[in-house]
Amino acid sequence: MLEFIASKVQTNIRELEGALIRATAFANLQGTTVDLPLAQIVLKDLVAEGDEPDISIAMIMAQTASYSEFSIDELCGTNRSRNLVLARQIAMYLCRELTDLSLPKIGLEFGGRDHTTVMHAERKIRKLMAEKHAVYNQVTELTNRIKQQARGA
């Protein structure tokens, strides 16, 4: 299973780590062990399909805003309502997973936030994905939408 993930996810170490976490989170939610068939099913949308298209922060913000029914300005703003904070953290997490941008660059794009805010968002979403099926589904759905948009589908 580890060899399968390593052979299919070759873009960067963060995406490799994200694939492993995604597989283990899904297994925990299902109450099963991580094995090759499970990894193949869970990671089918992540496996390398030739050249991966470029994904931008703007694309991630737009898809997250549309999905969560907030505006991009709200995602970058200072409002701290629970649903908005979760959407903002998911967007930051996706920026880390789907781009090679640095923590400070991502923070800057989200209204001038500190790099530690982005680190916190990434850790929090990883934890929530392992604990809550709804968050896992949200992140998976957004990842698929962003990758489809990037491919021009």
Write the layout of secondary structure elements.
Elements: H1 2-8, H2 13-30, H3 36-42, H4 57-68, H5 72-76, H6 82-98, H7 103-109, H8 115-131, H9 133-151
Helix pairs in contact: 2-8, 4-6, 4-9, 6-8, 7-8, 8-9
What percent of residues adopt helix (DSSP H or I)? over 70%
Average pLDDT, to the nearest integer?
88
Find the count of extended strands (DSSP E, 2+ residues): 0
Task: List low-pLDDT spans.
Answer: none
The rough form would be described as globular
Task: List the secondary-structure elements in sequence, H or E.
Answer: HHHHHHHHH
Report on this structure.
The protein starts with a helix and ends with a helix. It has 153 residues and is mainly alpha-helical. The mean pLDDT is 88. It has nine helices and no strands.
Descriptive key words:
about 0% strand; mainly alpha; 9 helices
Structure described in brief:
The protein is mainly alpha-helical and 153 residues long. It contains nine helices and no strands. 71% of the residues lie in helices and 0% in strands.
